[in-house]
Amino acid sequence: MSETETNLLGLDGFAFVEFTGPDAAGMAEQLEAMGFTAVARHPTKSITRYRQGRVDFVLNEAATQQASEFGRAHGPSANGMAFRVTDAARAYELALEKGARPADANLSAFPDVPVLEGIGGSLLYLIDHDVFAGWTPLSGAGAEAENSVGFGMIDHLTHNVRRGEMRTWSEFYRRIFGFEEQKYFDIKGQATGLFSQAMIAPDQQIRIPLNESQDDKSQIEEFLRQYNGEGIQHIALTTDNIYETVERLRARGVKLQDTIDTYYDLVDKRVPGHGEDLERLRRNRILIDGGGEDGILLQIFTENTFGPIFFEIIQRKGNDGFGNGNFQALFESIELDQIRRGVIKVA
Fold first, then answer.
1. Which phi and psi (to 5°) does residue 224 adopt?
2. pLDDT number for residue 333
3. Residues contacting residue 216 through CB under 8 Å, at least 6 positions apart
4. CA dihedral defined by 178, 183, 184, 189, rounded to 10 degrees?
5. Can you tell me the distance from the alpha carbon of 223 to that of 338, in angstroms, rounded to the nearest whole number?
6. How is the chain split among helix, strand and coil, in percent rounded to 5?
7. Residue 1: which pLDDT band, with cuts at 50, 70 and 90?
8. For residue 5, with 0-12 CB atoms within 10 Å meaning exposed, 13-18 middle and 19 or more buried, which class applies?
9. pLDDT at 77 over 50
10. Residue 188 in 3-state DSSP?
11. 335 close to 344: Cβ distance less than 8 angstroms
């Protein structure tokens, strides 16, 4: 995407997400079970590129100083993410002028790439070229196709932030990158609640919902305690056939969040004329939202995968939202699990 008055940094989607942690082998197994294939290895460091469709994940086995320190602080974690831009050097200078903090690229996996300080001390790379050129190939397109479960691209990723910091981070993305507020949620369960502000970049491709707790016991607060700070909570991945994707994931042992059976008793009333196979929805525990002129949104979430980080599987059928009704259902589902585990108590 070319630079415009509203897209001064030339944003053009997510480039990759970088992970690290003390059990890199276990994280690699999880990625492979989710259909990702190790396609390239850094020529001198223990850093691997995993790919599926247009999704790139980087697994850094604490091979750089930032990843090592981040993994010690947070355990299995997302220590960086990257935005594609038209001109990385120019975007970096503009970001600094707008108040972004520089990070030390020499401590990162990509020392030739401009990098900013992101959420919770993670890295925010600005990418305008093939950063994997020169890496050692590990497998080809055939292996990728065979292992794939159908993921296409990163739809959005969320940040969990401390109470009182949602506006800090919404202003960060607005001021530095030109994001706009897309949707606001006020979600309440039996005993806890959260606020969520969905932000969207001027390229209409990078979407980042920001979650903030309304109390000291919610799932957001539990994440902050487990993660030892703010950070990426989940990454949403698109698919063109959520039924096949979910069935492949289940066959590979990937654990997905459950949904109470009564949810499906109300689907036809809540989303009239949806046209989906209700019994296949129920069997796979897939959530549905939207309807009418808004189109349909199908989604499901994995259980915690890397520490408290999990993944969302999403299929959009003309719906660009975040599953307003499903957001409430997801919150209630996680809250019920917290109640069962004794994290929160209901009188």
1. -60, -35
2. 65
3. none
4. -140
5. 12
6. 30, 35, 35
7. very low
8. exposed
9. yes
10. strand
11. yes
